[in-house]
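Help needed: design a sequence for this.
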C-alpha cells in the first residue's frame, strides 16, 4: 500500500525512489595478527567510505521522491 500524506493528497501516493544499486562486496578481511597492517586498515577505510557514499545516495533518493523530509 502506497504512503499517502494527507497534506499533499494524491501527489505523493505511490511514488518510488530512484534505483540505487547494491553495495559491492567488501574488500577488507580479518587482520592476520593482533595489530592490523596499513593495507588492512586502508581496505577497511575504503569499504566504510563506499558504504557511506551508498547510504548518502539512498537518503538523497528518499528525499527526492518525497518519502523523507529534506
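Sure. Designed sequence:
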Amino acid at each position: 500500500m502506497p504512503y499517502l500524506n494527507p497534506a499533499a493528497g494524491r501527489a505523493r501516493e505511490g511514488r518510488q525512489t530512484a534505483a540505487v544499486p547494491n553495495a559491492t562486496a567488501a574488500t577488507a578481511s580479518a587482520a592476520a595478527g593482533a595489530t592490523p597492517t596499513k593495507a588492512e586498515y586502508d581496505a577497511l577505510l575504503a569499504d566504510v567510505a563506499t558504504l557511506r557514499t551508498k547510504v548518502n545516495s539512498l537518503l538523497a533518493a528518499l528525499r527526492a521522491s518525497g518519502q523523507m523530509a529534506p
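The chain has one helix and no strands.
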